[in-house]
Amino acid sequence: MKFSVDGKEFNFKYIISDYTGTLSEHSKLIPCVKEKIHKLKNRFEGIIVLTADTMGSAEKELSNLNIELKILNENTAIQKREFIESLGAENCIALGNGNNDIEMFKVAGLSLAIVNKDGCNAKLIQHADLVFNSICDALDALINSKILISLLRN
């Protein structure tokens, strides 16, 4: 996904997302996610979900999306940051809603805090480039980069 804002070029290759509370509400995949992920798959080299899977439902709920899922056990915040760094942080868009997403937000090329019905950690918002009221709205902004451009412009 390439676009330019105020002369700065962006070239994102990966979407890295949390699952619990970001792509799901009360452990169920939010209905719009499947359709929007399918629209985004051909624009990115990878869409990867990194999660502690607090509710234990990520594997089942994401099984039909054909995206990469990594379930993390300990030090999830550090593991998320290190994973993004291994891909080249500037190439990554991070999506999250929790305290354990702060470290990846600090290094990602673009970070989107997602509020949804489950809420969003206030400290995370301080590290976000953009905040969305729902994952549906955030994914729409990735589908239509003009939304991102308008929000990031000086």
Automatic annotation (TrEMBL):
Coiled-coil stretches noted in the UniProt entry, renumbered to this chain: 55-82
InterPro entries for the chain: HAD-like_sf, HAD_sf
Domain of life: Bacteria
Keyword entries, A-Z: Coiled coil, Hydrolase
UniProt KW Coiled coil keyword: yes
UniProt xrefs under Gene3D superfamilies: HAD superfamily/HAD-like (3.40.50.1000)
Keyword Hydrolase: yes
Gene Ontology molecular function terms on file: hydrolase activity
Protein name: Haloacid dehalogenase domain protein hydrolase type 3
Organism: Hippea maritima (strain ATCC 700847 / DSM 10411 / MH2)
Lineage: Bacteria, Pseudomonadati, Campylobacterota, Desulfurellia, Desulfurellales
